[in-house]
């Protein structure tokens, strides 16, 4: 029996019978790359590495948003289409970019997490936080407009809550093999959090509309 580690101090350990193959004696360049991707530079934090992983996801979200807006406005500078694009088109473009990044990170994350398990010799090691990064980004992909600070904090809290509480079927997905199980449960947690954030955002927008009297 192998005890699955927790990467957040609020999570309880999960016992699983999955065995992890021993790590090779000498690490290769691919091994170091996998560890760098899997831990995202914060996986070895002594306190709540999963929460730090979510913060990395927020940082990537903000960088992607800034880069998409800047590149799009530069490309359309002086165009009559710029005003209309800056309203709805830019938001749609950013969501597409965000989804592409999520798909890419998910695929790379599954590979890196699988390799990290073998290198660290533990099932779902706490140092692996690429899954939190992916889940946090998915949370923001549900909102069809740019979030302000309150919206970003709300998305962060929602994702951490779903990732820790793990409503059905999140906990069952952890039993999937290797990196797939590591990433899949956080993808679903991100879907739950994203849905909740979208509902909250829609209600706040409706509340702010100047209704006729």
Concise structural overview:
66% of the residues lie in helices and 3% in strands.
Throw out a few tags for this protein:
single chain; 213 residues; mainly alpha; two-stranded antiparallel sheet; 7 helices; 66% helix
Question: What can you tell me about this protein's structure?
Answer:
It is a single chain. This protein has 213 residues and is an all-alpha fold. Helices cover 66% and strands 3% of the residues. The protein has helices spanning 29-39, 49-75, 82-120, 130-140, 149-165, 170-173, 178-208; strands at residues 2-4, 14-16. A two-stranded antiparallel sheet has the order 1-2. Helix 3 (82-120) runs antiparallel to helix 7 (178-208) and helix 5 (149-165) crosses helix 7 (178-208). The radius of gyration is 19 Å and the shape is globular. The chain starts with a strand and ends in a 5-residue tail after the last helix.
Mean pLDDT: 83
Number of discrete helical segments: 7
Instruction: Specify the helix fraction band.
Output: 55-70%
Radius of gyration (Å): 19 Å
pLDDT below 50 for ≥5 consecutive residues: which ranges? 9-17
Shape: globular
Span between termini = 66 Å
- Topology order in helix (H) and strand (E) letters: EEHHHHHHH
- Class by helix and strand content? mainly alpha
Strand order of the largest sheet: 1-2
């Amino acid at each position: 029996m192998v005890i699955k580690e927790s990467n957040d101090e609020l999570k309880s350990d999960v016992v699983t019978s999955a065995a992890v193959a021993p790590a090779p004696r000498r690490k290769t360049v691919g091994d170091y790359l996998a560890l760098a991707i899997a831990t995202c530079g914060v996986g070895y934090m002594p306190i709540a590495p999963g929460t730090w992983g979510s913060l990395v996801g927020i940082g990537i979200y903000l960088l992607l948003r800034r880069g998409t807006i800047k590149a799009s406005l530069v490309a359309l500078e002086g165009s009559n289409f710029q005003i209309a694009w800056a309203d709805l088109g830019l938001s749609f473009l950013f969501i597409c970019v965000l989804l592409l990044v999520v798909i890419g990170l998910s695929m790379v994350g599954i590979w890196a997490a699988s390799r990290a398990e073998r290198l660290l010799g533990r099932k779902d090691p706490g140092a692996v936080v690429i899954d939190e990064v992916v889940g946090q980004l998915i949370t923001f992909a549900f909102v069809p407009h740019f979030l302000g600070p309150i919206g970003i904090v709300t998305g962060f809290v929602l994702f951490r809550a779903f990732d820790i509480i793990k409503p059905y079927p999140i906990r069952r997905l952890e039993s999937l093999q290797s990196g797939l199980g590591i990433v899949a449960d956080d993808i679903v947690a991100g879907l739950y959090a994203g849905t909740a954030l979208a509902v909250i955002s829609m209600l706040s927008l409706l509340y702010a509309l100047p209704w006729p009297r």
